[in-house]
Amino acid sequence: MISKSMMSGSRKHCFYFLGVLIFVAAWGFVSMRSGRIEITPPRILQTARRNASWRNALSPETTSMPVKSLRRSFSPTTVPGDGKQHVVILASMRTGSSFVGELLANNGDVFYLFEPGLAVHDALRQNGLSPAVVEHVYLRMLPKIFLCDFSDLDFYMEWLAARPLADLLKMAPRLYDLCVLNSTDPKGRCVITPEMATETCQKSDLIVIKSIRVPDINLLLPMVEEKTINLKVIHLVRDPRPMIASRAEALKWEVLDSKWNGVLPGKVQDVLCIYCKYNCQNLELGTQRPSLKNRYMFLRYEDAALNPRAAALRIYRFLGRDGGVPDSVQEWIDSNTGADKPGTYSTARNSREVYRKWRLTLPVEAARAIEKTGQCRGMMARMGYLTLEDKWHLRNMSRPLLGSLPPVNTDVEKYDWVWF
């Protein structure tokens, strides 16, 4: 038998939980009616902030960044929406994202930022903090940038100001314009303040961030589904074989040269497994999740390199710019994509030749090993990259390795029941 005291205790617990539920529901209703975004610190960051090693890592003796400004940037922030169009170029290292980014950066009406995650990386990794912490801080930084709220990002402004002017032009062209006109110091560095960045950002209807530090489109979904941010995603991919060849050159990996022993090093395999897995998942989610309908664009670097004008037109139409590609972007395409200017990180090169240059240098067996790693064969088939048919295929330029893009299922309505 159940005693009366037990029944009474159960009722008390029921009323207690009911009260909690009512409070949570009321709080959620008030938050929704307020029309604001609350950016709360991720759990891993809250733990790090309480830890003594976190405070020691950010002490004045161990970092060149102002500790006060770094700590302020981690505090919760409430920012209003502004109705602007915000864009992330979702890419990986050595996939042509700098080239594609220039198609937007050279539009004077676009507030473009090149890899703001570099500032977070430099500020935190030098103090021994893990990549997970860096990623969390970066993901909290993105909504603030999109909403032109630089009030707590003075560490980022100081990091930009410390760049050489040529780098600043690449990383933040609108801030470079402002700096050159108004505020260079005797040492040739810029004075960039949060107020300057906010004012310049607010004048732009289109805000673009090029990022190679967000591998998973799932991490961007909160901003896609938050109406005050209005985020669109350009998902840029490249054949994994030239991606690895280019990364090996940029990072001085002596693993794919003429002395290659036939086995991909562990770090190369790790890069490939992550790259191919997430690109498959990102394409699947981008074309089937209802909230990404009309907010997701898939672009192969090879298509942009072969026909940059067509790629630029696709991008601007995707962003709702019915006026087409601006003259300034057309001029940049004309003067840069036919140029013959060598350089690992240069964007002023003959794009038609660069996209297939790797075929002359990558060992055939290395190309075959890349094809067999992780989910790369499936990714290549899904995205129109052809595998090698024989040992002569790679060097024979008359035999293509870029095929047509297989049809993509965009009938998202029948998947509505899947998403909660």
TrEMBL record:
Gene Ontology MF terms: N-acetylglucosamine 6-O-sulfotransferase activity
SUPFAM superfamilies associated with the record: P-loop containing nucleoside triphosphate hydrolases
Span of domain Sulfotransferase: 85-373
Top-level taxonomic group: Eukaryota
Pfam families: Sulfotransfer_1
Any GO BP annotation: N-acetylglucosamine metabolic process
Name of protein: Sulfotransferase domain-containing protein
Species: Patiria miniata (Bat star)
